[in-house]
Amino acid sequence: xxxxxxxxxxxxxxxxxxxxxxxxxxxxxxxxxxxxxxxxxxxxxxxxxxxxxxxxxxxxxxxxxxxxxxxxxxxxxxxxxxxxxxxxxxxxxxxxxxxxxxxxxxxxxxxxxxxxxxxxxxxxxxxxxxxxxxxxxxxxxxxxxxxxxxxxxxxxxxxxxxxxxxxxxxxxxxxxxxxxxxxxxxxxxxxxxxxxxxxxxxxxxxxxxxxxxxxxxxxxxxxxxxxxxxxxxxxxxxxxxxxxxxxxxxxxxxxxxxxxxxxxxxxxxxxxxxxxxxxxxxxxxxxxxxxxxxxxxxxxxxxxxxxxxxxxxxxxxxxxxxxxxxxxxxxxxxxxxxxxxxx
Amino acid sequence: xxxxxxxxxxxxxxxxxxxxxxxxxxxxxxxxxxxxxxxxxxxxxxxxxxxxxxxxxxxxxxxxxxxxxxxxxxxxxxxxxxxxxxxxxxxxxxxxxxxxxxxxxxxxxxxxxxxxxxxxxxxxxxxxxxxxxxxxxxxxxxxxxxxxxxxxxxxxxxxxxxxxxxxxxxxxxxxxxxxxxxxxxxxxxxxxxxxxxxxxxxxxxxxxxxxxxxxxxxxxxxxxxxxxxxxxxxxxxxxxxxxxxxxxxxxxxxxxxxxxxxxxxxxxxxxxxxxxxxxxxxxxxxxxxxxxxxxxxxxxxxxxxxxxxxxxxxxxxxxxxxxxxxxxxxxxxxxxxxxxxxxxxxxxxxxxxxxxxxxxxxxxxxxxxxxxxxxxxxxxxxxxxxxxxxxxxxxxxxxxxxxxxxxxxxxxxxxxxxxxxxxxxxxxxxxxxxxxxxxxxxxxxxxxxxxxxxxxxxxxxxxxxxxxxxxxxxxxxxxxxxxxxxxxxxxxxxxxxxxxxxxxxxxxxxxxxxxx
Lengths: 343, 516
Known about the structure:
Distance between the termini of chain A: 27 Å
Strand order of the largest sheet of chain B: 6-7-8-3-9-10
Shape of chain A: globular
Radius of gyration of chain A: 21 Å
Strand content of chain A: under 5%
Shape of chain B: globular
Helix content of chain A: over 70%
Number of helices of chain B: 18
Structural class of chain B: alpha/beta
Largest sheet of chain A: 2 strands, antiparallel
Strand order of the largest sheet of chain A: 1-2
Helix content of chain B: 25-40%
Order of helices and strands of chain A: HHHHHHEEHHHHHHH
Largest sheet of chain B: 6 strands, mixed
Radius of gyration of chain B: 24 Å
Oligomer: heterodimer
Number of strands of chain A: 2
Strand content of chain B: 25-35%
Number of strands of chain B: 20
Largest interface: A-B, 26 and 38 residues
């Protein structure tokens, strides 16, 4: 059957077409609102779509958004492969950031070669541990991970507040912020002005490793089988309960890494609110890519582009940034709609 | 018009997507007859009846009742026109009583109160009149399937239907219950009702029906009076040219005796005093049996009497309370499932959709489930993706699975193809023991035929098969020995020469061998 190969381009086209239509439909729908509100729709969309490519600064801003978004998307998609929903990447990111900051402050004397890997490692572990709590509750008591991961977020906000205002408070800052981490704990820059840190390379590497894990290994196959039908996977000898736990913990480590990279690469300290809206966007990216790890980075880049474009649109045209959330939500809704249409 | 039909369906078309499920089908039902609607899986029997019952809308064609064209848009519509249907899967509220389930959706006399005394009288009268004993105050969830089916029939009769449609009504019944059902149907038609009896089981149709229509690939093939018909004519009509009836396994009857006779000496599976508990109540009680090389051991019993638990215990999926299981002389009690699957057992579960299929995964991902850590699919760590696709393509071909290819989503496959997929998976490697649970349920005759020949092939290779089935015809045809389950216990053991429908039936309903 050599036919299957010849089929590929057309099936790929078939797979992408609904997305393109969904994006188009979302832009048209949102455009109607913008038009009713009296804005110049064309100009607004030009800003959204092309800011990332018009200037060096715009492109680097996009990449800086892209870095945490890929990781929070993976924090969602890895558990999703096993049919579990991690809505706690916010908290896991914060704990990764806390771990990274603590390491960067407490081991300030270590050389960069030791400190940077340590910071990233501790960040991953902290994110994983924060996910381990709901994962264990699921494993042991069958507590729904959807609820417990969300609730863990709220705890993390308070812990962050405590650390930024009590433990390592920066007295000069007007906002809950810690003192900076050691110079030797900061990620080297790829481009110095505007600064682009080397977290980008780490993220690309991690995304490739995750893709290999889920799509090219027997262990990853077990994750996929579990997600496709946990009961059948169990009947055919896969330890699904452990995999649920593992998937959530792995997801947590992705978010933890995102937090550590934000600290070591961008902020160099812990700041209240640094989790931004990365979790919501990560979930949108995960859902849009349907857990396909081959496309997660591309969808993440697209969403990062929209985000940067939206900021520019707000600055230059005074269109509320929420408009882009609406567009993103509409894309998601239209994509899901196109799925049900196919059935 | 010479004949005065109660119901006429004329030129009914129905298309799903690109599949033509019904293609100009005609059906005429007389007053006071049992009409058999016969056909293999996917022949369009159920689709046709769902059109009649208002669940599907036909694309074209007319339905006439007493010669008058009617439009049936919903089941309520259908019932108003005197058409009732008993589905394969009962639509019952399991924590309601029998009486509540029967009157549900109608207005009781005591409305707005729910005093059902009057209705219970009516129900008991109906039950008595048609030989369908039920206890109106019993809760549905406590009742066996045979009784729940009677409740469904009474529910239709209670609504005063003139035409009763039964979709595969004998699937979960013992032979005794089947006989009782048939005599009830006879009582109904004697009172002027008409019954449409959907089935793929030819022998039942010949036993009870007055007239028979055969569908194949969504088209009429023939309609005949029972009196004019021979079994072979119907087999030919059902399967068309797809099957060589003379060489068929399915219609071989005694011809298999010789084929089945060569059993090895070596014991493959030995189960000793096995007790499997769910909470406190054991679901398999003190079960012992053994299975030799090349032997096919049939396990009979009504669904839910411990058969599933027995299979899952062998596979290491259930906690074993007492007893031992050995495979080829080695004890495997409570060994991990993945080790058993890799070594020597393959399994085709009964509940294909729940227990067998990764519906969201691709066809090739399904084909490697349980085998995904071994050659030729993996070196233990990394998947060999091209070898997987290659092997999957070959299996799709060998097992005649209709799919767009190895990368198609498995959930898109039709029921018969899903079963072929699961069989392809478990027959794709050499094992010592094959566990099959209702392997041919819902399949068309050529598929059943090919599955039987696959089982016989494996038998000739010396593999042992544990065949759990609710279809007695299948068990009698394929097994060397038979054990009969009821309430998790073995009620009796029979050799092939002792197979008898009624004695197995009474064991299935809980009477121990030789106790009668």
